[in-house]
Amino acid sequence: MPLKAYGVLVGKIVGKRKAVSSNPHFQIKVEGENGVFYRIAVNVKSKVAPSEVKYFLQDNFQHELVQKIKLANLQPGFHKLTKAPNGLALDYIRYNLFRLEDLVPLPFEVDGPNNDLNDHLDFFVTKAKEDDQAIIYAFGEPWGPETAKDKVFGFLPGRGIHDIHMNQGSEGDFAPTNGIWQDGGMLIYFPATDKWLAFFTAFQSQSFQTDDNGYAIVGGTGPGTGTPPPPSTTAVRIVAAMVNPAGDDAGKEAVYIINLSPNAIPLKGWSIIDKLGKKEVLADSLVLAAHSVLTIRLSGKGAQLGNSGGTITLQDQLNQKMDGVAYTQEQAKQQNYLLNF
């Protein structure tokens, strides 16, 4: 079954502790509502080989998610979230928070400065701790309140949030927690500069091709499945989109895809999917020629590209994600201009 509970913890960072070999979690102490304390336990090492986690860390993160968080005006404390699209819940695969190649593996502890996950996290967490205005948003599964003191920071009652990582595509003992729209992660907002820092992690053993229940697609190919993808499908990318055409949108919204390979790619069964999960199924006869760009005009009856921000996902005939991009309301406001990804 998926995570029993899922939500986001909002608060002010007041303490931290680096991960150690005996407990490979970066620990963050957060003050939430009315002086209530929480602990964020961030996995920095996998129990399943290979041990290095894959991470994405960006200090000027731009995505419609941050605008949604601002509009929600969440107060300090834990907030339960609905596991569904078009809200605040995270899904690494369906929300296009980053491109897969932006996730890179890194050990949590290596001799020397600024060269491991501990160091990278410590730098930004310290920066947020020293900024009285900085707000952290941690997504995952909560625990507590407990009758005992917190085992790391000693506050009473012990409580906090964990599973601050992708929570789908797992195998073996961890498969029962698979689910969609329940991924973990952290965002830190710095009001003085109006900048957002994003931190997302996944284990190398997890698949990035999952079904509607969060399980790895059986027989799937490509990133995260353990099976090398066919060369012809690794080179298909979304490079641009018309999301705010002049006049009526019908038949004018468009997605531009490129084939970087020397082979023509039949697109029978492929589809474009918007942020609400609506599909635009491509014509069976459509073929993406080698070394070429193809313009896909949306009919208005399937996928639709809203002007308030959104996502665009390209799936193949096995419902595998071939590529995905996201755009913000700010990026979409200029009418009749192509967005470049």
Quick synopsis:
The chain has 341 residues and is mainly beta. It has helices at 64-72, 117-129, 231-234, 329-332, and strands at residues 7-17, 25-31, 37-43, 53-58, 77-80, 104-106, 135-143, 160-162, 185-190, 195-203, 236-242, 254-259, 265-266, 271-273, 279-281, 287-288, 293-297, 309-315, 321-328, 339-340. The mean pLDDT is 93.
Written description of the protein model:
Strand 14 (about 270-275) and strand 15 (about 280) form a beta hairpin. Helix content is about 10%, strand content about 30%. By secondary structure, the chain is mainly beta. The protein starts with 6 loop residues before the first strand and ends with a strand. The chain has 2 domains: about 5-205, no CATH class; about 230-340, Lamin Tail domain (Immunoglobulin-like, Sandwich), CATH 2.60.40.1260. The strands form 4 sheets. A 5-stranded mixed barrel has the order 1-2-3-8-7. Strands 17-12-11-20 form a 4-stranded antiparallel sheet. It has helices at about 65-70, 115-130, 230-235, 330, and strands at about 5-15, 25-30, 35-45, 55-60, 75-80, 105, 135-145, 160, 185-190, 195-205, 235-240, 255-260, 265, 270-275, 280, 285-290, 295, 310-315, 320-330, 340.
